[in-house]
Amino acid sequence: MTTTALELAPAAPASGTCCAPLVREAADPAAAADLARSFKALGDPTRVRLLSIVAAHDGGEACVCELTEPIGLSQPTVSHHLKILVDAGLLTREQRGKWAYYSVVPGSLDRLGALLSEAAG
Amino acid sequence: MTTTALELAPAAPASGTCCAPLVREAADPAAAADLARSFKALGDPTRVRLLSIVAAHDGGEACVCELTEPIGLSQPTVSHHLKILVDAGLLTREQRGKWAYYSVVPGSLDRLGALLSEAAG
DNA sequence: AGATCGGATCGAAGAACTTCGATGCGTTGT
DNA sequence: ACAACGCATCGAAGTTCTTCGATCCGATCT
């Protein structure tokens, strides 16, 4: 490590321009909005808990009746949050007889994590 | 792959209990709230773009004056979003003379991705 | 068929968020 | 010392989100 690059690294010491230029493309607004939509679904403690409880069940699925009690919220509220997680592509819903079973979409969380590293790596 | 486990997999065919038991602990409410706080910071398209633009700059840092224009929002609004990202531990702020430089906290996004896989893996 | 149960949908009330213009504070330049 | 600049903070207005009780729809049981 020599001090060769020191002449251009600190840019302007006093006045003039303040920042360094871009070295690569930033995420375009559409991609950013997509990413934000997914993260917004995880931006509520209730929904994180729902996701975790579903994943903790045998077979990776659980019905609403098993989710309402540990969450401690009303049944309509739990259904509302589950719908948001389904719309975000993190859960799937399957009606079997009288009960509705929710399960984690395989790989959906890993895909999100990968996008995370890519967006700011 | 034999059909050995089929006897206990479908649980109750008609009435009775609906769901399978838990096979492991779900995330406790405090941990879920922590995780949700981080994701909520990423749950806005403006903040995802800010993070991306900062990371795209040389040296991984940028000042507010370089962020306001590409975002297309007012300077107070950009400052507000930057503060949220700092509070979430995703950005750091450093005042150098007249300008405030924001940079991505190294590893913060990877850590989030790891928690993601852990919480529902 | 009628009753019952699981769960989604429908407003509504309250809280939280996003955005802005105006203003204040610290640094830089004249 | 004074003016100019970068940026944070302060209300305020409008929107969105969270939560609930009430209600409705399907499936199951008697």
Write a structural description.
The structure is a homodimer of 121-residue chains. Chain A is an alpha+beta fold and 121 residues long. Chain A has a domain at 43-121: Orthogonal Bundle (Arc Repressor Mutant, subunit A), CATH 1.10.10. Chain A has helices at 29-41, 45-56, 65-71, 75-87, 108-120; strands at 61-63, 91-96, 99-104. In chain A, strands 1-3-2 form a three-stranded antiparallel beta sheet. In chain A, strand 2 (91-96) and strand 3 (99-104) form a beta hairpin. In chain A, helix 2 (45-56) packs across helix 4. The radius of gyration of chain A is 22 Å and the shape is elongated. Residues 1-14 of chain A have low confidence and may be disordered. Chain A binds a DNA duplex (30 and 30 nucleotides) through helix 4.
Give keywords.
DNA-binding; Metalloregulator ArsR/SmtB family transcription factor (chains A, B); transcription (chains A, B); Arc Repressor Mutant, subunit A; 121 residues; homodimer; 48% helix; three-stranded antiparallel sheet; transcription regulation (chains A, B); HTH_MetalResp_TranReg (chains A, B); elongated; alpha+beta; WH-like_DNA-bd_sf (chains A, B); disordered N terminus
